[in-house]
């Protein structure tokens, strides 16, 4: 028999305490009844920290450790916002496929507005949709080949004109690659007179790029020193380029944006802001990818030699097939398959990219990720870098292996949903075909023309910068010192 009088006061206190604590730490009752678990949540250790410090200091470590502890989906409270991070290939692929439940996040519009200074009237204008559609068409695999052809011509003339430091003197690999890619890209897309060719434009552009992630992650632009000043300088320079008659030789990509904007009643400033939105990934992402390809390859035991050998052989075969042809531009426009270079590019994009795809759970009715219930309106971030570093998919993922994606090596092929440097689903990068073509063409042209070697007497190191994550290529922290000279070729194989 159970008698209340048998329960003494200390036991009553202890059992009540257990009941209260149990209620506090048990997942919500509704979740239990729906047999869905509540997402594990990571908060800042201290109330005055706006972001869990580990996420800012070493994002790779943060995502690896948090996924190890909590599984492939978890919520993080940062900057007064709750974001749900997903780090596993299968779950991300499911999110990409389910565009009814996972819709475009309004935060994407917000970051574009804050970063590029789009006024609200631009965001609500139907012209924006028309411009996105024209960009989609002009960057499609069929149409992009004409842009790449002009990139090959511009790249060749820039490489020819390049002045190198005196023999034996080293230089930084980063400015060598970025300047070259910067000029070739702006000239091919915006026309040869683009203001971007001025050193002041270049300087303002990189200052803008450095600060952009802070604004994109929610910091008001006016609170990031210099951000608006640099952005507005870039906008003004683009406007003056557009107004200069002799500079109207840009690509279809640019001229369609301009004419859609003009016909839709947009101001010069509106049009310049859209063009800055095209210029930024064009100049910041693909050039950094080329830098990483060279930097990683130079630090690999085989160096650049296997790539140079493959390209040289292709060049000789191409000349045999095209008797009389002796021109790198024509070769670059007609590149054959280069399996090793393709694999090295895929590996660079796996190893050195960090791409977030953002989604919002549809406002009507929640949905689920795996066994977790998500509420309407919740913000989801697909962390594709975690997939790229997943040792269940990639053997020794922290090693740069240029042969990893060669199909004949006998290693199991990587499923397509495990290689996502360009994001995926409804928000996949529009510029991906152009970006890969550009990395290929400029790498071939540079390796045909120059010998690039690490300067062993003045070694320098480069690592991944912890900031600027989620927007494509990781920016470098540091640089490599290299010696660069022009290649000497037998007379008959010169350009
Ligand atoms: C290696 C080079 C590049 C990388 C790694 C890269 C990566 C990305 C990523 C991760 C996204 C977001 C994807 C998502 O939300 O799922 C994106 C979006 C985008 N990228 Fe790129 N990008 C590159 C080059 C370019 C270039 C050269 C252009 C333009 C010429 C470009 C234009 C765009 C545009 C317009 C979007 C927005 C797509 C949308 O929201 O509908 N990207 N890119």
Structural features, described:
- The longest helix is centred in the middle third of the chain and has 32 residues, at 268-299.
- Helix 11 (199-216) crosses helix 12, helix 12 packs across helix 14 and helix 14 (268-299) packs across helix 17 (339-352).
- Strands 1, 2, 3, 4, 6, 9 and 12 form a 7-stranded mixed sheet that branches.
- 51% of the residues lie in helices and 12% in strands.
- The chain is built from 19 helices and 14 strands.
- The chain has 495 residues and is an alpha+beta fold.
- The N and C termini lie far apart (102 Å).
- 35% of the residues are buried.
- It has one domain (53-493): Cytochrome P450 (Cytochrome p450, Orthogonal Bundle).
- The protein has helices spanning 9-25, 29-33, 53-57, 59-70, 89-97, 106-116, 120-123, 126-138, 141-161, 173-190, 199-216, 227-243, 252-263, 268-299, 305-321, 328-333, 339-352, 384-388, 432-449, and strands at residues 41-42, 73-78, 81-86, 102-104, 171-172, 353-361, 367-369, 372-374, 379-383, 450-454, 462-464, 471-473, 476-478, 481-486.
- Mean pLDDT is 86; it is low at 1-7 and 22-35.
- The structure holds protoporphyrin IX containing FE.
- It comes from Sistotremastrum suecicum HHB10207 ss-3.
- One of its GO terms (molecular function) is heme binding.
């Amino acid at each position: 028999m159970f008698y209340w009088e048998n329960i003494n006061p200390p036991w009553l206190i202890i059992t009540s305490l257990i009941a209260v604590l149990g209620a506090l730490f048990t997942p919500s009752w509704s979740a239990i009844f729906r047999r869905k678990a509540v997402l594990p949540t990571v908060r800042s250790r201290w109330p005055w920290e706006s972001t869990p410090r580990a996420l800012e200091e070493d994002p790779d470590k943060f995502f690896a450790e948090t996924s190890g502890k909590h599984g492939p989906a978890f919520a993080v409270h940062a900057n007064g916002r709750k974001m749900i991070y997903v780090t596993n290939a299968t779950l991300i692929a499911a999110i990409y496929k389910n565009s009814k439940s996972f819709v475009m996040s309004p935060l994407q519009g917000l970051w574009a507005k804050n970063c590029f200074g789009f006024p609200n009237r631009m965001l609500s204008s139907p012209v924006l949709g028309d411009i996105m559609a024209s960009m989609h068409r002009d960057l499609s695999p069929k149409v992009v080949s004409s842009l790449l052809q002009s990139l090959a011509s511009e790249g060749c003339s820039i490489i020819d004109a390049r002045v190198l430091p005196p023999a034996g003197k080293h230089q930084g690999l980063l400015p060598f690659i970025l300047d070259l890619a910067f000029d070739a890209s702006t000239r091919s897309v915006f026309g040869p007179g683009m203001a971007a060719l001025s050193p002041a434009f270049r300087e303002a552009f990189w200052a803008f790029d450095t600060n952009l992630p802070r604004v994109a992650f929610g910091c008001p632009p006016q609170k990031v020193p210099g951000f608006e000043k640099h952005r507005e300088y870039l906008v003004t320079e683009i406007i003056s380029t557009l107004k200069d008659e002799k500079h109207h030789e840009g690509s279809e990509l640019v001229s369609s944006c301009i004419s859609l904007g003009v016909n839709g009643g947009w101001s010069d400033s509106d049009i310049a802001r859209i063009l800055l939105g095209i210029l930024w990934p064009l100049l910041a992402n693909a050039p950094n990818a080329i830098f990483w390809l060279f930097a990683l390859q130079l630090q690999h035991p085989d160096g650049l030699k296997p790539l140079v050998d493959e390209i040289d052989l292709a060049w000789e075969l191409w000349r045999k097939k095209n008797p009389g042809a002796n021109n790198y531009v024509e070769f670059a426009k007609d590149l054959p398959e280069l399996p090793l270079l393709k694999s090295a590019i895929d590996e660079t994009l796996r190893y050195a990219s960090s791409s977030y795809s953002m989604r919002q759970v549809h406002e009507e009715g929640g949905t689920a990720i795996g066994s977790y219930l998500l509420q309407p309106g919740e913000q989801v971030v697909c962390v594709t870098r975690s997939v790229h570093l997943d040792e269940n998919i990639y053997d020794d993922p922290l090693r740069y292996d240029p042969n990893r994606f060669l199909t004949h090596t006998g290693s199991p092929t990587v499923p397509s949903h495990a290689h996502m440097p360009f994001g995926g689903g409804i928000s996949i990068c529009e510029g991906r075909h152009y970006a890969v073509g550009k990395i290929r063409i400029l790498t071939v042209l540079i390796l045909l023309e120059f010998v690039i070697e690490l300067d062993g007497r003045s070694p320098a190191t480069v690592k991944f910068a912890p900031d600027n994550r989620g927007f494509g290529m990781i920016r470098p922290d540091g640089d490599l010192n290299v010696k660069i000279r022009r290649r000497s070729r037998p007379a008959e194989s010169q350009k």
